[in-house]
Design the sequence.
């Protein structure tokens, strides 16, 4: 009976009902939009850091990080390779030889981190070749490159031999270097002897993180290991997992498998990124709560209006002997019906909007003051439909709606039939 | 005039309705202000934390120092300038530093490090090095002691009370060499500082580098980061063309870039919020007009001209919206003030992320009065735009149909 | 500083005139290196706003070993630099400490001059690391000179793109060197002056090192005394010796 009454009430005044349906839908949509935008942002930030800088995990000898002394190579290198290759949680990995060194040119010099990389294995891990302003000339190494984080401008050659080096654009600008120029790289080898070699710049890359561009140079893994007096050894393993969520589990597993090595996650390797992500993460949850409060308030207001408008009618019902409990239930049921209609609408629209922007990117560069310039990279964000959070959000919206309807329902109960009918 | 009176009376005639609409607007205002002030507060807090870990808000160098950071580009310390900088409104602290690269050696180990000479008691107001001391104690004024970043001390394997030797290049080609006692180990948030920084008093560093009364930079800390560029240009004006003035945004462009792109994305969220509150306000107006159909029809039927009626409903809405946004601004003041004094505290993993950098894990609100005014006005404008809806309803009103029940 | 040795190396005795550019260099190099050299040099650093003078004593043996003792100014007196192969050690008497310069220090200027620490260790040999071609004749201070172009071999750890050296045709002394980068841009210039007899050899006794892109800036080296081929034992170039040399 109540159900029927509530259902009919809804259709008796379609404008009012529509307003509530739209409010609920808008509230849910807003919450979805915020989460989708946030997820998109976080994922793009995470991707930049994981896919181009740190990887999910890195492995070093515990002594290596202090001074990058070449003698601190990864022991059990072969066992690592075997385990990593057959681990289903791991998407790809690469080994590196790393050293600190000094890069000298006729007009100046700079301290750099020299990364010896294995051309074939490195690409899927750090996408370094994808960041080259000049693509690889060597056809066997020509790889299709996603250009989300990079801009392709011109072309050059890969690390074809022990005399090739890739440097960052920032460093190139600072030392006035261009493609094909010669630099002299000085490092200390395993026995603390200084070793120098002349290198040709075979590529200039640019990533989203300019300070790193100034620091990191890339050379061939094999030759660097020989120069440093540790042929065949490696200093660093960079690992990309299939899923961002399994980082701590995998980290833990390998830490206990190889207690002699240090396994670190991107959070430890790039604490700044972690800090920014956590800040934005929490802030968006606070915003979702504010949105839910705003939504509840909208519902309270609309339902109050509708109860007030129906004073006469409710007074009449009360006069006819419909109990207070039933009246209350009726208004509650109405609200829930209306909310339930709003939910799928919001989900549908939300899904459409998010998938559109997910594909095409949401260009925020037009939004407001000083924003347009200087952001080659992140002015497009790609919202992601927060599927895993949807049940929770729906639940929260419904709870807000029900809580919000209690006040107007009480109000309706308190309508005195005599006064209400007087008019 | 009588229309305004009539509008006013109308509002009071149906108080419940007026309350509801007003509160919808007020609430929208509170929500917008709260969201914005949280957003600004969080990022201001982050910026303050970052600049107070080393750079300060603004630095003054001899022109050319930033491009070539060597001792030969240092300048004479001037009490006069320091005094002048500190009288600029918004400036809370000014100090001087001498920065130089040096080798630090202890036992068999030799590492590169960044030596900074500081004025210990003035530095307290800016970088909180004194609060970052993990073991040992802060610098006294004339002591032959140094503070060392934690990671650097671990690499050097030197603890409190150990002796370290500094060797480097001094001012104008002189040679710098000296022995110092480690007075304290600092745990600094930034990994770069933690593994490179060595701090001593300014006079000691001037002695070490043979740079008598020279400094490389003035560090200036502001109360609030808002008028950064204005203050910087004022400082430049005071200092003169022989100096360069850099803001933290110029010193750390990548952090500025991060924060800017994040807060820009947050602005999108603010827009979503506006859409939502617009719906809230609009729905009350919509229902109000449904309710007032009969009444409006009647008024037109008894000869009130439509434009006049439109003006009447517009006036009513405007008064409501204005009251609402004013009330919202009023209500939000204590709320924001409370959250600024008792900020939201982070817990768990995010708190750790903050603490790793030595930052307090809080989300304070910003109490910038501009937020209240701007957000209040935005909601007010939204309200006024939405008030055009009743005007539109009246325009389309057919008195006969409206009165038919 | 290495460049100083480098210049010394370029000095050569009289030779027949029908020889290749490489032969000129080889003979200069062999003659100059002889066995050893020992010298007192006044080094003056000239900057737009300040000047600085120091007097050093140097000992060198081949390309691998050299030692520099700072005799003045008083504040720096007793500081010793030792080069052994590609390592540089530094003795600081004020703190009684020897340290080995790490690679990060190599790019720093050597005692405020226009030479870097790296110049001290660079192992480049003007004979073996370059190919040599005569490129013309010139006259410097009324002396007839060959111009010789030096191009680094591809595998040589040399930053320069090209060197142009002017060698006196009669006394085989080097009066002028221009250092170019790979784009053909002049990076710095070295000039030799005051050619006179010292320890039985005719050599320039004053060198100016002038960076191309910095105004009013140069480093002057004035040889006050030089002795060639006085035997020095390998044991002299050790860290223990640094503390007692003077």
Sequence:
């Amino acid at each position: 009976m109540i159900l029927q009454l509530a259902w009919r009430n809804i259709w008796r005044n379609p404008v009012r009902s529509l307003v509530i349906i739209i409010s609920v839908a808008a509230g849910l949509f807003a919450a979805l939009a915020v989460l989708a935008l946030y997820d998109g942002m976080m994922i793009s930030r995470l991707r930049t850091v994981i896919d181009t800088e740190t990887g999910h995990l890195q492995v070093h000898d515990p002594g290596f990080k202090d001074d990058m002394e070449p003698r601190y190579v990864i022991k059990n290198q072969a066992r690592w390779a075997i385990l990593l290759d057959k681990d289903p949680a791991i998407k790809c990995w690469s080994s590196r030889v790393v050293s600190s060194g000094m890069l000298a040119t006729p007009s100046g010099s700079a301290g750099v981190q020299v990364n010896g990389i294995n051309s074939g294995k490195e690409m899927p891990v750090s996408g370094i070749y994808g960041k080259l302003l000049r693509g690889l000339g060597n056809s066997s190494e020509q790889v299709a490159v996603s250009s989300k984080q990079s801009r392709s401008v011109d072309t050059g050659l890969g690390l074809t031999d022990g005399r090739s080096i890739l440097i960052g654009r920032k460093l190139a600008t600072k030392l006035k270097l261009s493609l094909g120029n010669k630099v002299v790289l000085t490092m200390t080898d395993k026995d603390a002897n200084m070793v120098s070699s002349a290198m040709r710049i075979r590529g200039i890359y640019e990533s989203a993180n300019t300070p790193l561009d100034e620091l990191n140079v890339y050379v061939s893994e094999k030759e660097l290991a020989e120069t440093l007096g540790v042929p065949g050894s490696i200093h660093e393993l960079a690992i990309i997992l299939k899923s961002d969520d399994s980082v701590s589990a995998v980290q833990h597993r390998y830490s206990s498998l190889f207690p002699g090595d240090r396994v670190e996650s991107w959070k430890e390797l790039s604490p700044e990124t972690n800090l920014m992500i956590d800040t934005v993460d929490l802030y968006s949850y606070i915003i979702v709560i504010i949105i839910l409060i705003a939504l509840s308030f909208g519902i309270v207001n609309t339902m109050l209006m509708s109860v007030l408008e129906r004073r006469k009618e409710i007074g009449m019902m009360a006069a006819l002997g419909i109990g207070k409990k039933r009246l209350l239930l009726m208004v509650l049921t109405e609200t829930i019906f209306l909310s339930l209609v709003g939910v799928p609408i919001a989900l549908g629209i939300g899904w459409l909007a998010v998938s559109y922007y997910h594909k095409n990117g949401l260009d925020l560069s037009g939004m407001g003051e000083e924003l347009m310039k200087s952001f080659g990279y992140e002015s497009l964000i790609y919202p992601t439909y927060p599927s895993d959070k949807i049940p929770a959000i729906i639940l929260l919206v419904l709870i807000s709606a029900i809580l919000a309807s209690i006040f107007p329902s009480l109000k309706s109960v308190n309508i005195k039939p005599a006064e209400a009918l007087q008019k | 005039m009588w229309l305004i009176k009539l509008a006013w009376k109308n509002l009071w005639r149906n108080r419940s309705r007026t309350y509801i609409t007003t509160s919808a607007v007020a609430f929208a205002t509170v929500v917008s202000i709260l969201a914005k002030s949280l957003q600004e507060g969080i990022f201001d807090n982050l910026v303050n934390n970052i600049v107070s870990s080393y750079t300060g808000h603004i630095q003054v160098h001899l022109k050319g120092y930033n491009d070539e950071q060597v001792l030969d580009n240092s300048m004479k310390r001037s009490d006069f300038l320091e005094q002048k900088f500190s009288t600029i409104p918004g400036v809370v602290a000014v100090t001087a530093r001498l920065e130089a690269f040096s080798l630090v050696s202890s036992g068999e180990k030799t590492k590169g490090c960044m030596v900074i000479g500081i004025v210990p008691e003035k530095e307290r107001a800016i970088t909180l090095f004194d609060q970052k001391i993990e073991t040992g104690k802060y610098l006294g004024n004339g002591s032959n002691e140094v503070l060392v970043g934690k990671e650097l001390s671990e690499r050097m394997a030197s603890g409190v009370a150990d002796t370290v030797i500094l060797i480097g290049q001094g001012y104008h080609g002189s040679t710098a060499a000296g022995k110092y006692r480690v007075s304290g180990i600092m745990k600094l948030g930034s990994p770069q500082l933690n593994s490179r920084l060595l701090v001593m008093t300014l006079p000691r560093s001037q002695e070490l580098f043979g740079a008598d009364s020279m400094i490389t930079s003035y560090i200036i800390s502001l109360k609030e980061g808002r008028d950064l560029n204005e203050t910087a240009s004022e400082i430049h004006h005071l200092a003169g063309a022989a100096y360069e003035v850099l803001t933290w945004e110029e010193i750390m462009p990548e952090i500025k870039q991060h924060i800017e792109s994040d807060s820009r994305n947050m602005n999108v969220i603010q827009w979503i919020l506006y859409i939502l509150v617009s719906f809230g306000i609009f729905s009350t107006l919509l229902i109000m007009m449904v309710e007032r159909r009969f009444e409006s029809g009647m008024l037109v039927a008894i000869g009130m001209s439509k434009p006049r009626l439109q003006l009447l409903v517009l006036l009513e809405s405007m008064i409501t919206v204005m009251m609402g946004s004013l009330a919202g601004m009023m209500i939000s003041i204590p709320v924001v003030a409370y959250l600024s004094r008792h900020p939201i505290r982070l817990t768990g993993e995010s708190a750790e992320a903050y603490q790793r950098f030595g930052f307090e894990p809080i989300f304070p609100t910003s109490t910038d009065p501009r937020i209240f005014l701007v957000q209040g006005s935005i909601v007010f404008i939204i309200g006024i735009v939405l008030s055009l809806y009743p005007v539109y309803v009246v325009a389309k009103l057919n008195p006969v149909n409206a009165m038919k029940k | 500083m290495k460049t100083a040795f480098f210049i010394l190396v370029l000095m050569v005795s009289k030779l027949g005139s029908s020889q290749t550019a490489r032969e000129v260099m080889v003979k200069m190099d062999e003659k100059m290196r002889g066995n050893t050299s020992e010298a007192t040099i006044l080094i003056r650093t000239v900057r737009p706003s300040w000047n600085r003078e120091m007097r050093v004593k140097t000992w060198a043996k081949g390309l691998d070993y050299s030692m520099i003792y700072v005799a003045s100014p008083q504040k720096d007196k007793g500081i010793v630099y030792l080069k052994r192969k590609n390592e540089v050690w530094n003795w600081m008497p004020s703190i009684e400490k020897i340290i080995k310069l790490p690679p990060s220090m190599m790019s720093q200027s050597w005692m405020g001059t226009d030479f870097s620490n790296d110049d001290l260790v660079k192992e480049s040999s003007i004979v073996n690391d370059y190919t040599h071609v005569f490129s013309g004749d010139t006259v410097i201070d009324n002396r007839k000179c060959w111009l010789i172009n030096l191009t680094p071999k591809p595998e040589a750890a040399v930053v320069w793109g090209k060197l142009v050296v002017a060698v006196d045709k009669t006394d085989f002394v080097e009066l002028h060197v221009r250092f170019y980068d790979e784009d053909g841009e002049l990076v710095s210039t070295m000039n030799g002056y005051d050619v006179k007899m010292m320890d039985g050899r005719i050599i320039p006794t004053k060198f100016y090192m002038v960076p191309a892109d910095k105004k009013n800036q140069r480093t002057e080296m004035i040889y006050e005394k030089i002795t060639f081929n006085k035997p020095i034992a390998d044991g002299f170039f050790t860290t223990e010796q640094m503390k007692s040399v003077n």
